[in-house]
Amino acid sequence: MTVRQIAEYLQLNEKKIYALATEEKIPATKVTGKWMFPRELIDRWMLESAHGGVFTDRLVIAGSEDPLLYRTLLRLSNNMKSHALVSYTGTGTRLGLELLSAQKVNASCLNWGEVEESPQRHPALLQNYKQHQQWVLVRAFKRERGFMIHPDRKPEDCSSESLLSSELKWGIRQDGSGTLHFLNELLAQHSMKIKDLSSTVKVFSNRETAALIVSGQVDAATGTRSVATEFGLAFVELGWEALDFAVRRDVYFRKIFQTFLEHLRSQVILKQARQLGGYNFSESGKLIWGGEH
Length: 293
Prior knowledge:
Blueprint: H1 3-10, H2 14-22, E1 29-31, E2 34-36, H3 39-49, E3 58-63, H4 67-80, E4 85-88, H5 93-101, E5 107-110, H6 118-126, E6 135-149, H7 160-164, E7 169-173, H8 178-189, E8 199-203, H9 206-214, E9 220-224, H10 225-230, E10 234-248, H11 249-252, H12 255-264, H13 267-276, E11 279-280, E12 287-289
Parallel strand pairs: 3-4, 3-5, 7-8
Antiparallel strand pairs: 1-2, 5-10, 6-9, 6-10, 6-11, 6-12
Helix pairs in contact: 1-2, 4-12
C-alpha cells in the first residue's frame, strides 16, 4: 500500500505515516524512493500493538539450540496448555536474528565467541540488523563448549592441533551458526580452514551432529558438554561461551517471557543442568545490553 492508502486504512494523516516509517515504528520499505507498506505486515503490526492482542500470548524463539532450553520450553508449554503458543526452533545464530529482524519470531538465542568477549561481540552482532534498537540482550546462561567425539574414536592426544589434523570425519554446521564460527576460530589459530580437515559432513544442529557421531557416520564435531552428555559421547573441554536472548523490548516485559525466565531458573531445570553438566547460571536473567535505551 502507498502512503495515501495506508493513511486511509489506519485513519491517520500522511504526515504521521511518514514519521512512523522514518522512525521504523511501522513495517515499511522504500521502492524506487517511495514508501510502501505490506498489507500483511501492517495487519500483524496492528495486532502486535493492540493491548491484549492475540500475539501477547505467544512465545516463538529461534536461533542457537540447547537441550536445556528445549526442556524448559516444553515445561512452559505444558503449563500454559492452550492459553499460549510456545515454540522453539534451532536455526543457528544468524538465521535466528534475521527471523527476529523480520518479526517472524519473538526472541532469538545467540552465541558468538568466548564468554569473556560476549559483552562486546553480541551487541556488535545485533547492530548488523535494522531493528536492533528495539531489542535487548538477556543472559540465558554460560555453557561449556569443546569437541564431541565418538568414545571409540577418541585418540590419546586430544589437543586441538592434533585433533584437527587427524583423520577424523568432522560434522560441520551450516553458515551463520555460532558452532561453525567457533570451529573457524579454532582452525584459524592453527592456520587451517575447513577445507584442511580430513573429511566433513554438513549438519544443521548439534543434536543431529551427536546422533551422527553415535551412529558412526561422523567421528567428531565442536559442540557443548550438555549435548555430549545426552548422547553418551566423549567430550574435550575448550572453554565457555555465553548463550543470550535477543528479544524485542516489548516482548521482554510480557508476562509470558518473564514466566519463561522463571522456569529457566526453577529448581527442576537447575537439577537437570547439573545432571547434564557444563552450565553456569550465575547471570541467568540478567539484562546484558539495551536496557539503557
